[in-house]
Amino acid sequence: MKAFTYERATSPEQAAAAVAGRDGAKFIAGGTNLLDLMKLQIEAPTHLVDLQDLGLDKIDATRDGGLRIGALVTNTALASDDRVRAQYGVLTRAIVAGASGQLRNKATTAGNLLQRTRCPYFYDTNLPCNKRAPGSGCAAAEGFSRQLAVIGTSDQCIATYPGDMAIALRLLDATVETVMPDGTGRSIALADFHRLPGDQPWLDNTLAEGELIISVTLPKPIGGRHIYRKVRDRRSYAFALVSVAAVLHDDGTGRVAFGGVAHKPWRSEEAEALLPQGAGAVVERAFAGAAPTDDNKFKITLADRTLASVIAEARS
Amino acid sequence: MTPTGNDNATADNVTGSGSSAAGLAATLMPVGMEVNGMTVALSLDPRTTLLDAMREHLRLNGTKKGCDHGQCGACTVIVNGQRINSCLTLAVMHDGDAVTTIEGLGTVDDLHPMQAAFVKHDGYQCGYCTPGQICSAVSVLKEIAAGVPSHATADLTATPTVTRDEISERMSGNLCRCGAYSNIAEAMVEVAGAEA
């Protein structure tokens, strides 16, 4: 690990200003992904601003009947919250499908949104990667790409967003609230939070320098059957090949989002409108324009079968 | 153990990272914790993980370094009542926290019930993963009792129970290269007092 200095932030505004005002400064919350990357020198911050004292660890009801989740609420606390379990079951299901118990006890809501890709070429500092070393090339495009993205890719990057929680948050139309270094704030729809790689694959999301996530808000519950189905190479503690988050209603309508297939949670409102026609129609529309490799084209078939299984479960 | 830690350790021999490219001299930071019921005061390079603070500074070598990347669970300790990977957290992030390691759960003469159950059920072979397995196992039973859901929990609105599926799922962050998993599960079932 490269040397860095460390401070504990005293307010969200102070934290944002501390990071924005210093080259190489980063926020640290749970640290489970950042420290892993720092050990590999994929991340090498010169200064860490620890957010643990900011009181951002509460889940509050909103006036609109939703929930405001503090940025530092742990994965375990969020998944265990009675309101989330009862009314946003797909979120609990997605969270407990990811990582291990130890990691979920430390990982935070905001940090989980910011976790970086697990593309093996991003992790191997001996190989080119436009996300880790802009301009160096993409070793994944002609490499082992079985785990990687099938849609929304560019010729510079085929990495996936690796998480589960964000797939459910995208499905639930969550928004991300932030504080800027100048003290102003804004709200970002989760749909607009993660970006596609395009020609700037080193940018995972649309946050500005020093912009700090303070909460994630869920709109009021929408009812329906909540299902999160994750397909992976082992039964537990593995990243998704494909995951399906769904809320399905008795009349056959609903919402669906896919994980493990793109640089962001993949949801198409046009595609999910076809749910009454079955999985095939939804997947055909959602994955129109997909550009898989020979190694990962199976993911589209797998998405179709996984969604069909989810629909069957909802009807059972 | 030395309550004040090894204050003479340099950044390099603590973290094993070699001299930094920027040539920055590490500024040591004070860290106070309660470790296994004992108050400790350390002065640490901010790079020091909680794992290295336990092993290299407090000489609590029960906690093991396996992968050092949060993948194997050998470093599992209990902080403020919750199990975490001590390799993926900085000691400076735990100023004021209460840490329990395997040394704090029981002793040779006074085993924790989970330690005794691991012995009885042969829940290990080489033993390297065992301290992490036991810290995790103790925490898993508390998590189930507290109603924390898992991927194996069928009904999210019901209180989870101790079943083989729940144990396997919740222990998936602790790898055992010797493959003692079934005996570890037996030990946990016995401690839980459950028929599973």
Question: How would you sum up this structure, described in words?
Answer:
Chain A: Keywords: FAD, Flavoprotein. Chain A: This is Xanthine dehydrogenase family protein subunit M. Chain A: GO terms for molecular function: FAD binding; oxidoreductase activity. The complex is a heterodimer of chains A (316) and B (196). Chain A contains twelve helices and eleven strands. Chain A has 316 residues and is α+β, with helices and mostly antiparallel strands. Among the domains of chain A are: 5-52, Uridine Diphospho-n-acetylenolpyruvylglucosamine Reductase, domain 2; 225-315, CO dehydrogenase flavoprotein, C-terminal domain (Enolase-like, domain 1). In chain A, the strands form three sheets. A five-stranded antiparallel sheet of chain A has the order 4-5-8-6-7. Chain A has a three-stranded parallel sheet with strand order 1-3-2, with helices on one face. Chain A starts with a strand and ends with a helix. Chain B is an alpha+beta fold and 196 residues long. Chain B has two domains: 25-104, Beta-grasp domain (Ubiquitin-like (UB roll), Roll); 113-195, DNA polymerase, domain 1 (Orthogonal Bundle). Chain B contains seven helices and five strands, in the order H-E-E-H-E-E-E-H-H-H-H-H. Chain B has a five-stranded mixed sheet with strand order 2-1-5-3-4, with helices on both faces. In chain B, strand 3 and strand 4 (82-85) form a beta hairpin. In chain B, helix 4 (113-121) packs across helix 7. The longest helix of chain B has 16 residues, at 130-145. Residues 1-21 of chain B have low confidence and may be disordered.
